[in-house]
Amino acid sequence: MSTTTPSSVAEPTTAIGKTADFLDQRTKVGVLAKQLVRKVFPDHWSFMLGEIALFSFVVLILSGFFLTMFFEPSMALTRYENEHPASMHGELMSVAFASTLDMSFEVRGGLLMRQIHHWSALIFMAGIVVHMMRVFFTGAFRKPRELNWLVGVTMLILGLLAGFTGYSLPDDVLSGNGLRITDGVVKSIPIIGSYLSYFIFGGEFPGEHIVPRLFTLHILVVPALLLALIGVHLFLMVLNKHTQYPGGGRTNNNVVGSPAVPAFATKMGGNFFIIFGVLALMGGTMAINNVWNYGPYDPSPVSAGAQPDWYMLFLEGSLRLMPGQTEYVIGGYTLSLNILIPAVVIPGLLFTFLFVYPFIEAKVTGDHREHHLLDRPRNVPVRTGLGVAFLTAFIILALAGSNDLIATHFSLSINTITWVFRFLFFAGPVFAFWITKRICLGLQRKDRELVLHGHETGRIVRFANGEYIEVHRPLDEQERWLRVNYDAHAPLEIEPATDARGVKRKGYKQDRRWQRLSRFFFEDRVEPVTPAELAAAHSHGEHDELESAHTAPELVSGSGNVEREH
Amino acid sequence: MKALAARRHHRSAPVVLLLLALLVTGGVYAALAPSPAKADTASTADIETGKKLFQANCATCHGPNAEGTTEAPSLVGVGAAAVDFQVSTGRMPMQMNGPQAEAKPPQMDEEQTAALAAYVASLGAGPAIPTDEQVDGSLGDAANGMALFRTNCAMCHNAVGAGGALSEGKFAPSLFETSDRNIYQAMLTGPQSMPVFNDANITPEEKRDIVAFIDEQREGSAGGLSLGSLGPVSEGLWAWVVGLGLIIGAAVWIGAKSS
Amino acid sequence: MSENQNPQPSRDVTPHGGDGTLAQADRFTDPGVPEHKPRLTDTDPRSAKRNERLIVLIFLISCLGTVGSVVAYFAVRPDGTTEGVRLSTLLLGVAMAVSLLGIGIAAVHWAKTLMSNHEHVEERHPSSSSDEVRAVVANQFKEGGKDAGIARRPMLLGSVGLALALFPLSIAVPLVSSVGGDWNVSKFRHTMWKKGTRLAYDPSGRLIRAADLTVGSVAHVIPDVPAEERETHHWITEKAKAVVLLVRLDPRDLKRDHREGASYDGIVAYSKICTHVGCPVALYEQQTHHLLCPCHQSTFDIADGAKVVFGPAKRPLPQLPITVDDEGYLVAEDDFNEPIGPSYWERLK
């Protein structure tokens, strides 16, 4: 449509103009640019949480490139000849470990880059988690964005994998024990466990292949997959256009915000530099994973506080909580449920929940429309409750994975803590769900109350008949619209079990199950205020300012009756 | 009533609620804190002075002749090193029952400690107090010390000696503040939960190497703030609180409308 | 409360001035985008100028940061010591942070104060393609299928499917069969301990006399092998199975061995590899005789056959039978009689 042929416009004179002309004559890039340059993005701080993950990933690639220049992924044994650190001088270690020490102590800026890289990894995963929380609690995963949610959850898993493979590369005692735990978990898998362990380590643990294998995964396979998925993620985001929070003028059919160029793009670019700057500050001032403290891998030692990075702590915690009695021998074969349940089943359940939730919610809602307006979390109490319950389970597991540090820092018994967490793992999420749902319903009622009766003003007025009332100020249009513009879904209606002729209907049972689930979601709900309700409230709510104006003749405003509390 | 309603919306309400929640947590914590278990040892230069001190301060638990009671172990044969360790770190005499005797300001001065040690040493042969040269880390080999520390000590005391948890509320203390002499004596005598590492297991030179390694750790971390040297959990906590805190703070600033 | 159960409520409120649906009677109408409020910089040119200067200043600070980091790189030559590396890391990191934060903060402030902040509205269109497009595409595929003759020539479809399904094997078979080494998983069953292997201290390799161990002491033990063998990969893999924890208890405290007659005069030797997931279990509490794993807190009672008293492990640690040879050194009487470390499916077969 907007194809510009060289003849139709004046010859470009500036350098930029010439370059643009050169490119466009060959690629028709103008069409794309036209679309992108003025694309409208809604402004909200919570829409920048995904940028945290994106930009820390960019920092990971930049700092990771630096590290690959100096790291040697080899498990060949060598003696460390450098004087520093003194505790490593003359030690036998793998080349991988020696090169890690070398880049930290001999390469100027090497330790800074290592630390930036590791801090970025922690922030990358944290960014993914907070971004997912925003998407989940506001219902941004609904149609048409279920696909992008799936891409996102897959990236979360790839992020875990990237972190895990990178963490084990220096071949130190701490990560070596992490690998050993992985080996133990893999071996517990029925039938194929031993062979899978050989598959990973190229023989018995630890062998001499694991570091090069992890290296290839860490710098090639996983980042390539992540990059591809980031591309898909952003493409879908642009294609579907960004969601927006509800508010005046924001509808399901539009996007209100600022255009990509210049304000939005400048802010986004600025955010990249701010995030990079914070990561550089952390890398420069706060020590992280100083592997020479742990020493080169040796299968005998282990250190107190043997934990993985934070995003793996939930697995560590779940392994810690599981009682050992659940290992069984069946027909001479060992089934280690004490490992399988915490290390395979529980993470499996957590991720399955993440993968299927959008589809379950769509099904119980019976809603096939597209959604581009976000939900306020309070308006979907059960979803919000489930999300908080999920986080509670995750946090309890992560805390259980830190139980030894909790024990020493709060002078508690590690055994007691373990028992408390065993109990909390079941009770905590249920309680969190229940209380969150109650809070949401309470907030919704409060919204209704506000819409119907307005703000308390603190002004007390006395009527002629001696009655005192407080004057309420009605909400302005924008305030009210925010609180009434939502749907309170009702539970699914299903067709009866038998048709008119009394013949049993196929699929009724399944429908019933969905209906039951739908009731769980939507039985308790607070409907938005309708104009009729508001009118009714005004007609008998004499204490509304609006009304009191109409009934002014009856009102005697005695001296001293009007007081302000604020 | 209205005042109450107004206060309910007060902006400090969340703070008050948070404080309440902390209070409740504190109560629960107090209820969960581990219950006491039992303790350990005590003793001097001039043996007579030591004996008097012993009978005044230690005999209640360890028995009038240090032969031990159901409360506390016999001190016959523990040696002067054990007494010096326990008394100079303030662990003995014990004041309070807890999962283990904890270090506190010493109750006795150096002379009294020496007297007690001499008295107990006179009861039966045991390890003597190491000489200053034996515990001088600057004479040791930190690399060998680290290899030994990693195998023998790090599982309880953490990779660089920051301490760690044991079962039932017991713990391996941080070594950052412990004197070189006390570190050496602890290996030699195996106080409380700690096993004994006698001179056949870890030779005197090796013990000094370990002291040298711990001394090196006191220089802090090459990477910057050590964050307690506690490993990935504390790193994760700092990443969330400081890193993500700053970044989200920036996001809020970027997203806010300017006035 | 539930008067509104309309399955198609009007979330899609038409913006002001739009045609289309009327606002339903039971819903409020959208008040429209709130009125744009100009910023101070929009109305006050002096304020705009002030902010412009501020932004320039922050960009310049960023330049100083970059220069600073280059200066720090050349000026602070770390000598490899802890303080030297720390200083260099600190200076480079802080200068880099100033440089980056300067750009970031200045850019954002520029966008926030000087670039237009008028709200723009962009229409959305349905995510799906139109019915005509769908029909055309479906038809094209149908035509394509007809052209290829898929329906008429089922053998063709079957064979192409088969070929495609099989071809990855030419890569996968060599890969998978080589990647696991010799696949001899029965190696899990044995360690390098055998009758007569002397016990040695880890890491020094000194031999251990029974008489050297005092009650309450613990020793981390490896099999006695020549020093040069301890510098090979083979050794690390063997060590991963062979490490043993040696404890001397008062014989009166020793309730039982896990393996009949495996201890010597209160000296017991247990595998150091946890039966849970394989961490080295090594936190020995001398007074309670409990052995705690720092990874997942499985607790074993050394005085009682290393049985599990707490935590996620099920089985006791395997015991190494020991005795004393003619010279008074501790020696193994045999290998472990069960695979050490974590459980696996065919462990007992």
Automatic annotation (TrEMBL), chain A:
<keyword id="KW-0349">Heme</keyword>
<feature type="domain" description="Cytochrome b/b6 N-terminal region profile">
    <location>
        <begin position="19"/>
        <end position="246"/>
    </location>
</feature>
<feature type="transmembrane region" description="Helical">
    <location>
        <begin position="116"/>
        <end position="137"/>
    </location>
</feature>
<feature type="region of interest" description="Disordered">
    <location>
        <begin position="537"/>
        <end position="566"/>
    </location>
</feature>
<feature type="transmembrane region" description="Helical">
    <location>
        <begin position="419"/>
        <end position="436"/>
    </location>
</feature>
<feature type="transmembrane region" description="Helical">
    <location>
        <begin position="339"/>
        <end position="360"/>
    </location>
</feature>
<feature type="transmembrane region" description="Helical">
    <location>
        <begin position="48"/>
        <end position="71"/>
    </location>
</feature>
<dbReference type="InterPro" id="IPR016174">
    <property type="entry name" value="Di-haem_cyt_TM"/>
</dbReference>
<keyword id="KW-1133">Transmembrane helix</keyword>
<dbReference type="InterPro" id="IPR005798">
    <property type="entry name" value="Cyt_b/b6_C"/>
</dbReference>
<keyword id="KW-0472">Membrane</keyword>
<protein>
    <recommendedName>
        <fullName>Cytochrome bc1 complex cytochrome b subunit</fullName>
        <ecNumber>7.1.1.8</ecNumber>
    </recommendedName>
</protein>
<feature type="compositionally biased region" description="Basic and acidic residues">
    <location>
        <begin position="539"/>
        <end position="548"/>
    </location>
</feature>
<dbReference type="InterPro" id="IPR027387">
    <property type="entry name" value="Cytb/b6-like_sf"/>
</dbReference>
<feature type="domain" description="Cytochrome b/b6 C-terminal region profile">
    <location>
        <begin position="247"/>
        <end position="442"/>
    </location>
</feature>
From TrEMBL, chain B:
<keyword id="KW-0812">Transmembrane</keyword>
<dbReference type="Pfam" id="PF00034">
    <property type="entry name" value="Cytochrom_C"/>
</dbReference>
<keyword id="KW-1278">Translocase</keyword>
<keyword id="KW-0677">Repeat</keyword>
<keyword id="KW-0249">Electron transport</keyword>
<keyword id="KW-0349">Heme</keyword>
<keyword id="KW-0732">Signal</keyword>
<feature type="transmembrane region" description="Helical">
    <location>
        <begin position="237"/>
        <end position="256"/>
    </location>
</feature>
<dbReference type="InterPro" id="IPR036909">
    <property type="entry name" value="Cyt_c-like_dom_sf"/>
</dbReference>
<keyword id="KW-0813">Transport</keyword>
<dbReference type="InterPro" id="IPR009056">
    <property type="entry name" value="Cyt_c-like_dom"/>
</dbReference>
<keyword id="KW-0408">Iron</keyword>
<protein>
    <recommendedName>
        <fullName>Cytochrome bc1 complex cytochrome c subunit</fullName>
        <ecNumber>7.1.1.8</ecNumber>
    </recommendedName>
</protein>
<keyword id="KW-0472">Membrane</keyword>
<dbReference type="InterPro" id="IPR009152">
    <property type="entry name" value="bc1_cytC-su"/>
</dbReference>
UniProtKB/TrEMBL annotation, chain C:
<comment type="similarity">
    <text>Belongs to the Rieske iron-sulfur protein family.</text>
</comment>
<protein>
    <recommendedName>
        <fullName>Cytochrome bc1 complex Rieske iron-sulfur subunit</fullName>
    </recommendedName>
</protein>
<feature type="compositionally biased region" description="Polar residues">
    <location>
        <begin position="1"/>
        <end position="11"/>
    </location>
</feature>
<keyword id="KW-0411">Iron-sulfur</keyword>
<dbReference type="InterPro" id="IPR036922">
    <property type="entry name" value="Rieske_2Fe-2S_sf"/>
</dbReference>
<dbReference type="Pfam" id="PF19297">
    <property type="entry name" value="QcrA_N"/>
</dbReference>
<feature type="transmembrane region" description="Helical">
    <location>
        <begin position="87"/>
        <end position="108"/>
    </location>
</feature>
<feature type="compositionally biased region" description="Basic and acidic residues">
    <location>
        <begin position="27"/>
        <end position="46"/>
    </location>
</feature>
<dbReference type="Pfam" id="PF00355">
    <property type="entry name" value="Rieske"/>
</dbReference>
<comment type="function">
    <text>Iron-sulfur subunit of the cytochrome bc1 complex, an essential component of the respiratory electron transport chain required for ATP synthesis. The bc1 complex catalyzes the oxidation of menaquinol and the reduction of cytochrome c in the respiratory chain. The bc1 complex operates through a Q-cycle mechanism that couples electron transfer to generation of the proton gradient that drives ATP synthesis.</text>
</comment>
<keyword id="KW-0560">Oxidoreductase</keyword>
<keyword id="KW-0479">Metal-binding</keyword>
<feature type="domain" description="Rieske">
    <location>
        <begin position="241"/>
        <end position="331"/>
    </location>
</feature>
<dbReference type="InterPro" id="IPR017941">
    <property type="entry name" value="Rieske_2Fe-2S"/>
</dbReference>
<feature type="transmembrane region" description="Helical">
    <location>
        <begin position="54"/>
        <end position="75"/>
    </location>
</feature>
